[in-house]
Each structure stands twice: as structure tokens, then as C-alpha cells.
């Protein structure tokens, strides 16, 4: 059974602070995606990482793929209220036609 | 390019009824997946269709079914509704369901909020 865990489950911080959320798998995966979902809407893809050790930046967001391809982190610098949302990670496995396995998400609230 | 559309956006039904939800994928995307999202269970995979064939199926009872048409549009049906079926139902499309990670980036619609009374 492939298991994907996200931590923390919930995070509430002040605007301007930095934060990191994590996504860990019990298996080596082929690719990992991060999504952000706002209330009442569908998740929106932020980034896809496929190479161990890969780092991608999207403005104030930095995504890192672990060397062993079993974990990933999302770091937000100087958080803004617009970053509020549910952050989901999803992994794909080549042997399952890349059917995505989803984490439960990190609910992030940025207070003004 | 238009995004994924889902209809209706909101739906209220009573126990025992059935419901059909519709999803139109992004033009050119041939794979459509359906998810159920609830606060307690998170995002749960229902099934995926590709070229009118069900490719993958999650762990849901047979009351949940779906189909895909030749134009890639998809419908999901839930029969004999139960209170626990109240959820946000999300549809996502991707280019195809194989061929590498570049093709499995999913694009979601806004969802259908189903309330069962």
C-alpha cells in the first residue's frame, strides 16, 4: 500500500513569516505535484518535480524534491494573506499509469 | 483555452434519489478523473476514464458509476444517495493517462457541491 503523509495538517501564522510544509511517501515515486486549493474551488497545480534533489522556485514559493525521491517540501517566504489555502501534494508511480496518490493536505491560514 | 467545466455547481438531493454530474475537460485532454472531497476524508479518487474506457477505479461502492463520451466529456452517477455522499465532487482532466509525468498534470474544475438531506 502506498501512503502519502503531509505535515503539518494545519498551520496558522502571521503575514510576513516564513513556513515549510512537508510531503512524505513510504515508496519511491516517479513524480510529485503540489497543488493549492481555495475554499469552494478545485485544486490548482503549482509545480511538478521529477528529479531527485530538484529545486523549483515560483516567486516566494520554493519546492524541493528529496534526493531519495520519497519526500518533498514547500517553503514559503514572507507569507501573504493570499497564500491562504489547502496545499495538497500528489505523487505518481510509473507502474500504475501515473495514477495520482493524494496526501490529506496542509490547511494554511495567513493572518493579516 | 477554456478550463475544465462542471455542471451543476450546486445540488441538493434527498436520500434515496440519484444524481448525475457532468464534466467537460480541457480541449485535447482525453483523460478525465473524478474525486470526492470531504473535510474528514480529504481527496478520494473515484475513477478515471480515457478514450471512453475506465482505466482506474478507487474504492467506492457500485452506487458510484461513470462514463465518458467520444468527445471526452464525462458524467458521474450516484444512485440511492446516502447522507454520507454529501461532498464536493471534483473532475480533473489530463492529456492522457500514460507516457510520463509531463502528461499526468491534472487540471481541475470548480467542482459540484452535493448536499444530501
Plain-language structure description:
- The complex is a heterodimer of chains A (112) and B (117).
- Chain A contains no helices and eleven strands.
- Chain A has strands at residues 4-7, 10-14, 19-25, 31-37, 44-49, 55-58, 61-65, 71-76, 85-92, 101-102, 106-111.
- Chain B is an all-beta fold.
- Chain B has no helices and eleven strands.
- In chain B, strands 2, 4, 5, 6, 9, 10 and 11 form a seven-stranded mixed beta sheet that branches. Chain B has a four-stranded antiparallel beta sheet with strand order 1-3-8-7, with no helix packed on it.
- The mean pLDDT of chain B is 90.
Summarize the structure.
Chain A is 0% helix and 54% strand.
Helix count, DSSP H or I runs of 4 or more residues of chain A: 0
- Quote the average pLDDT of chain B: 90
The termini of chain B sit apart by 37 Å
The dominant shape of chain B is globular
**Share of β-strand residues of chain A:** over 45%
Unreliable stretches of chain B (pLDDT < 50, length at least 5) are none
> Structural class from helices and strands of chain B?
mainly beta
Low-confidence stretches of chain A: none
Largest β-sheet summary of chain A: 6 strands, mixed
Radius of gyration of chain A (CA) equals: 14 Å
Give the proportion of residues in helices of chain A: under 10%
Question: Any key phrases for this structure?
Answer:
heterodimer; A: 112 residues; mainly beta; 6-stranded mixed beta sheet; 0% helix; 54% strand; B: 117 residues; 4-stranded antiparallel beta sheet; 51% strand
Amino acid at each position: 500500500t502506498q501512503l502519502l503523509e503531509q505535515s503539518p495538517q494545519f498551520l496558522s501564522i502571521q503575514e510576513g513569516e516564513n513556513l515549510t510544509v512537508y510531503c512524505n511517501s513510504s515508496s519511491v515515486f516517479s513524480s510529485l505535484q503540489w497543488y493549492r486549493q481555495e475554499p469552494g474551488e478545485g485544486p490548482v497545480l503549482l509545480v511538478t518535480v521529477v528529479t531527485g534533489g530538484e529545486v523549483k522556485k515560483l516567486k516566494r514559493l520554493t519546492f524541493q524534491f528529496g534526493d531519495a525521491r520519497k519526500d518533498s517540501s514547500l517553503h514559503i517566504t514572507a507569507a501573504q494573506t493570499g497564500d491562504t489555502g489547502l496545499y495538497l501534494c500528489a505523487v505518481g508511480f510509473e507502474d500504475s499509469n501515473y495514477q495520482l496518490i493524494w496526501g490529506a493536505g496542509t490547511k494554511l491560514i495567513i493572518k493579516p | 483555452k477554456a478550463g475544465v467545466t462542471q455542471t451543476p455547481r450546486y445540488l441538493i438531493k434527498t436520500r434515496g434519489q440519484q444524481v448525475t454530474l457532468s464534466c467537460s475537460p480541457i480541449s485535447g485532454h482525453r483523460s478525465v478523473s473524478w474525486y470526492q472531497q470531504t473535510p474528514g476524508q480529504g481527496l478520494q479518487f473515484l475513477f478515471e476514464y480515457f478514450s471512453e474506457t475506465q482505466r482506474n477505479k478507487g474504492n467506492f461502492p457500485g452506487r458510484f458509476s461513470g462514463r465518458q463520451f467520444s468527445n471526452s466529456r464525462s458524467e458521474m452517477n450516484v444512485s440511492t444517495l446516502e447522507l454520507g455522499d454529501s461532498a464536493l465532487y471534483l473532475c480533473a482532466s489530463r492529456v492522457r493517462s500514460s507516457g510520463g509525468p509531463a502528461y499526468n498534470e491534472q487540471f481541475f474544475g470548480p467542482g459540484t457541491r452535493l448536499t444530501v438531506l
